[in-house]
Amino acid sequence: MWRIPFFTFLLAIFMSPAHAQGGAWQACHGVASPAGPVLGDCRPIADVVDPQGREIWIRSIVQAPADTRPRVLYVAGVASSEAWLNGKRLGANGRPGSAAQEEIPGRYQAIFPIREVIWRDGENVLVLRLSSFHGGLRFARPMSAVAVLPYPYPPRIAPLAITFLAAGTLLAAAFGFGVIHAMRRTGTSLILAAMASVATLQAIVESLRTLFDYSYPLHAWRMSAIWVLAAIFAVLLVRYVSTRFLPGRRGVITGFSLGLVGATALLPGFDVKTIWALILGVALAALPAAAGAWRRLPGARPTLAYLTLFLALALGLPEWFTDLSYFLLAAGLVLPLLMVEVVRLGRDDRGREAALTRAASQPDRLTVASARGVELVPIAEILAVVGADDYVELRLAGGRSLLHAARLDGLASQLPAGFQRIHRSVIANLSRVQRLERDGDRWRLHLSEGVSLPVSRSRLPALREALEAPSVAVAA
Fold first, then answer.
1. What is the distance between the alpha carbons of residues 396 and 310, in angstroms, rounded to a whole number?
2. Omega within 30 of 0 (cis) for the link into 470
3. CB under 8 Å to 268, separation ≥6 — which residues?
4. pLDDT of 6 above 50
5. Distance of CA 197 to CAs 143, 175, 305, 320, 358, Å?
6. How many CB atoms are located within 10 Å of the residue 78 CB?
7. What's the average model confidence in pLDDT over 150-179?
8. Residue 311: its pLDDT value, please?
């Protein structure tokens, strides 16, 4: 696997830069000949080496190595390449050309071994011919590196091992949340399964450059996939936190996050797009978490603290964050949530059993497990029950409301006959109905107080029949 080293580490530690002796690459007019490239009219390159949409010849001066270790030329970028050292051809990566039809795309990373006899004492002339007609999207810095490196490389498997460990952990979490969703049909478990799956996919896509020697035209697709997956993770994170702690505003918050995170597509550079997609998602998710902490909802404060840490690392160490810590933090977020979900589901089951036992002895009251503790609510005071994922909101007389750790389907069987399901997420107390009226192509049910409730078309006939019963008076 000598063609797939950890080049980022090597460039930082062992690089003998190709821009030694003054540091500048020169762009030249050049032609290939049996004796080597013939260059003329060479001029310094002021900015970056950019072969996109053209063929270029570049040269630089490198110093002969001070030791006897073998050297290789490492070229990474969105281009086909051909290299010479002191007029001796080192090799080709694909085939550069002056037009798309003449070019054969090379790999994104290429290594050219340098024979010891090619080196001269002192200065050596390195020449490259580059072209990039098949790159797809245009990059601000198409060439990642051109460097002379010692070989063999020291083993550096730790970063890849950590990434794979995080990916395996996230995959296991995705499976766990999927099982929970299959058992309980809770929306939060489905969102968390999607979050873990997306983070797993991004870890795999991030590792492709190290694992596979892919053709350079695929690099644009890989970078696009990294940004898309980061953006999806950010929006799912916002959706999850708003569903848990601010369910009444989750649609607005999720829609806003879609627009704001999607706007990062307009930023220059894929690393910048990815970093800001994650930062914006975490920042927006912190808002409903803060609202939940202020209302003292269970789990809100730890979630807010974790998101704050997430955001601090993203702002303080953006490159480290996108390369590695994102996967570790994602795993650190979803794994505790998985354990919390399992514990909470067990606790909820026990709480529901106890509530049913107490309710059997007091049929006129509903035992509600809320953030304030356990409360016995007179059923006659309940105006409506509105579903909020694995919680329900009890709307009570006098403008009060309570969050109850129960599901709408379970409450529908516990409430007396005067309550009826009028929408997939709403149960109404028919004894509190004032009128049923049409609102455009929809129907709304008005109670004695509070906001009107939506009525689904499929449940409208049953509701009309119930309201026409002698025991219910309603002005239609």
1. 38
2. no
3. 140
4. no
5. 31, 9, 23, 22, 41
6. 28
7. 67
8. 78
Region of poorest pLDDT, from 20-24, 217-221, 240-244, 362-366: 20-24
Please tell me the CATH superfamily of domain 362-467, with its number: LytTr DNA-binding domain (2.40.50.1020)
Task: Report the alpha-carbon distance of residue 423 to residue 420 in Å, rounded.
Answer: 9
Residue 125: Cβ-neighbour burial (10 angstroms; 0-12, 13-18, 19+): middle
Q: 449, 423, 421: which is closest to 434 by C-alpha?
A: 449
Q: Round to whole Å and give the CA distance between 68 and 70.
A: 6
Instruction: Tell me how long the chain is.
Output: 476
Residue found under tokens 């990294």: 226
Top pLDDT among 139 and 10 is at: 139
Tokens, residue 174: 């995705």
**pTM given for the model:** 0.63
- Sign of the dihedral defined by the CA atoms of residues 85, 91, 96, 98, in that order: positive
Give the C-alpha separation, 348 to 356, whole Å: 12
Measured in degrees and rounded to the nearest 5, phi and psi for residue 6 equal -85, 85
Domain boundary assignment for the chain: 7-150, 158-346, 362-467
> Going by C-beta distance under 8 Å and a sequence separation of 6 or more, which residues neighbour residue 196?
170, 171, 173, 174, 177, 330, 334
pLDDT bin (cut points 50, 70, 90) of residue 145 is: confident
Q: How confident is the model at residue 348 (pLDDT cuts 50, 70, 90)?
A: low
CA 106 to mean position of chain CA atoms: 30
How would CATH label the architecture of 7-150? Sandwich (2.60)
Say whether pLDDT at 358 is over 90.
Answer: no
> What local confidence, expressed as pLDDT, does residue 261 receive?
92
Tell me the three-class secondary structure of the chain, residue by residue: CCCCCCHHHHHHHHCEECCCCCCCCEEEEEECCCCCCEEEEEEECCCCCCCECCEEEEEEEEECCCCCCCEEEEEEECCEEEEEECCEEEEEECECCCCCCCCECCECEEEEEECHHHCCCCEEEEEEEEEECCCCCCCCCCEEEEEEEECCCCCCCHHHHHHHHHHHHHHHHHHHHHHHHHHHCCHHHHHHHHHHHHHHHHHHHHHHHHHCCCECCHHHHHHHHHHHHHHHHHHHHHHHHHHHHCHHHHHHHHHHHHHHHHHHHHCCCHHHHHHHHHHHHHHHHHHHHHHHHHCCCCCHHHHHHHHHHHHHHHHHCHHHHHHHHHHHHHHHHHHHHHHHHHHHHHHHHHHHHHHHHHHHHCCCEEEEEECCEEEEEEHHHEEEEEEECCEEEEEEHHHCEEEECCCHHHHHHHCCCCEEEEECCEEEEHHHEEEEEEECCEEEEEECCCCCEEECHHHHHHHHHHHCCCCCCCCC
